[in-house]
# Entry
Amino acid sequence: MMYNKMTSRLALTSLWREIPMGLRCVACLRLCPVLILMITVCGAPLGLARTPDTIPLAPLPDQSVWSEAYKARQGAVYEARARSLGLQKAFAGDPAKTAAMDAYDAHFYFLDLDLDPSVNILTATVAMAATVVADSLTEAELHLDNGMLVSATRAGGVAVAWTHGFDLLDVTLDRTYLQGESFTIEVDYAGNPAGDYFGWSSYNGAPLIWTLSEPYGAREWWPCKDLNSDKADSVAVDVTVPDSLVVAGNGLLMGTDTPEPGKTTYHWRERHPIATYLVSATAHPYTLIEDTYTGLLGETMPLQHYVVADKVAEATAGYAPTADMIHTFALAYGEYPFLDEKYGHAHFLWGGGMEHQTCSSMGFNYYNQTFVAHELAHQWFGDNITCADFHHIWLNEGFATWSEAYWLEQSQGELAYKGRMNQQKYLGAGSVYVYDVSNFNGIFNYWTTYAKASWVVHMLRHVMGESDFFAALADYRAAYGDSSATTEQFQAVCEQVSGLDLGQFMSQWIYGEYYPQYGISWTKTPVGPNWRVDLRIKQTQTNAGLFSMPLDIRVTTPLGDEAFVVQNQDEVQWYHFMVAHEPEDVLVDPDAWVLCEQTDLGISGVVAPAAEVSLLGAVPNPFNPRTSIRLSLPTAQEVGLVIYDLAGRRVRDLAPGLLSAGEHDVLWDGRDQTGREAASGTYFVRMTAGETHAVNRLTLVR
Ligand SMILES: [Zn+2]
# Structure
């Protein structure tokens, strides 16, 4: 794939242009039909509840680090909570996922938030529109942290009763709703959600309010069905703050207004499907840096970076490659998913980043290109396609981490790609699949769900081949964009495109642990004018079962290299190659496409078993339209002879069956199993006789 350098235009302003009030309202209403419907249904605009006097002020935890102790405690709390809910609640994949939540499909949320950093209190009304999928529904259950104090609930616009416990909010509906009917509820609440998911920080003497809800934190500050498997079609987020602050959010800013002197309300609208943990708002006296991305068809999209005032120079330089990165990923993965909205960054106080939809939250001291590329790539893998639950977080993090290397490859070349992958090479315990999703450390374990997962993507790229790999990513987008996916759904798309069976691949790399350790030895023998190479590969790992992988083999000679591909899956396998010149070296996986370790077991002392069993080459080769494959057997035995293409697909089973001792010629007429003429190109003939496997390369030139 070619990389086209694009020109970036950076414009620096401290405030964006004001949208005329009239236009703003028209635009807002035109773009939010669900909101109009809901307001109509409710009979009156949604009100903003006031702060009750009884809200306790929780002490602020240290927000500068992700507290390991807090995460561990939360994990235990979730697990314990799920167990305590026991008989009536089902814990099926998501912490505190309940059977009651399966009864409806959430469509739309309207968050009307008032953030008061002078007292650290959030006062809010959140509305949800949903459709009943059960036979009927009389009560809607949402996640909401017990620390939030609910003061009123409404359904269909009328006041209704609620119960709130175990971090679950159950709102009685105004009537019984039947399957297929839509309903709306509103929740007035307030509290101090400060913790790992929401912070009242300050920077240079001014408030810096942030959110970071992944994986289970949305429920800490707003009521919602907090499950990746049920994305809202869109969200509206109104945030009212002291007028010294600027609010960054998801989607497009439709305008601002002044609800009362000294306060400003920001109207953010995300009109693409979005998971609850990707809904975000940050507030600070930000400086706005603007830029433009030009889409693949020439559309223009704003880039908006909300940065702290004393980091404008660093941010301007650090975020300058963003447009080029979007272009690179758009060519590889399909157009940026939110092209009719924006992409951008908002500074927060964390040491890392968080891929909030269309507006990644970024630590303001970090501008590595790989860091910017990682959060950007999440807009495709994580935001547009979200892991169905956090068992499958590698579908987010593996692709984002691999995309760091892919950006380096496209901008700096293959060496940079390989160098980055080498940095991410993890040779340790732990599976990529997260078996225990109540364990935060397991979900966000850098070495397994990020680094090793990026190697899974890297290996898949080679196993499938470049064109099938990227074609599969396009099909994956088409099937699961705006939605969520599991490992098995991703696997099915890859299998559909490539024709490969990837069951063993996923089993060993996603669900299993460790990696293959290959013990290598080889010998060379002159055969007439040619040389035969006998290669022995022994899988020596004791901490995992046998791995099944195609392996590139490179035989180096003074007059050039010869390349082969072999399938390796047994504890000990022999391979025999015929090459035209005396071999200098035999390299296994020379380009580092497989997560493995290799040990050179040396040449001496190795004797190929049944060395007389061998493939002696093909005549003619290159050939058109047919060639004769010669093999030699010491004793009568069953022989398998299969033609594969470069991608490892079976093209033709020549099935010679039981052959007598001696030399035999087996004809391949250049046709595949269905009788069609095979295309010009490189093929491999693989012979199996007893424990011996031998491979020769064939070149068909039509
Ligand atoms: Zn990430």
Summary: Residues 394-412 form the longest helix (19 residues).
